[in-house]
Amino acid sequence: MENFSGDNVYREKKSLHCDLCNKLLVDKEGKVKEEFLWTIRGLICSKHYESLDEISFKIYKRYNKGQKISESHSLFKPVKIS
Ligand SMILES: [Zn+2]
C-alpha cells in the first residue's frame, strides 16, 4: 500500500487554468485544450487576452490548441520572480 501523507508529496502533474476565468488550458497530460498566452502576469486564455485593451505586460509565449507541453516545462513549476 502507498502512503498518501499529502504534505510531503510533490505533485508535478497538474492541469493549468486561465488566471482570469479559470478555464482549463492544459490538461494533466500536457495537451493544450485552449489557445492561451503565457505572460509575466500568469496564464491568460486568448479570448481574455483579446478583450484586454491595455497590453502592457510581457508575453513569454503563445500556445495553440493541440500543442503538447512537456512535463518538465517551467510552466508546470512555480514561477520564480526575480
Ligand atoms: Zn480566460
Could you estimate the helical fraction of the residues in percent? under 10%
Total helices: the number is 1
Bound molecules: zinc ion
Q: What is the multimeric organization of the chains shown? A: single chain
Strand arrangement across the biggest beta sheet: 4-3-5
Unreliable stretches, pLDDT < 50, 5 or more residues?
5-11
**What's the end-to-end separation, in Å?**
41 Å
- Overall geometry: globular
Quick rundown:
With 82 residues, the protein is mostly beta strands. It has one helix spanning 46-51, and strands at 16-17, 24-26, 36-39, 42-45, 59-63.
Tell me what the structure shows.
The chain has 82 residues and is mainly beta. The chain has a domain at 16-68. Helix content is 7%, strand content 22%. It has one helix and five strands. Strands 4-3-5 form a three-stranded antiparallel beta sheet. It starts with 15 loop residues before the first strand and ends in a 19-residue tail after the last strand. Mean pLDDT is 81; it is low at 5-11. It binds zinc ion. Zinc ion (ZN) binds at residues 18, 20-21, 23, 45, 47-48.
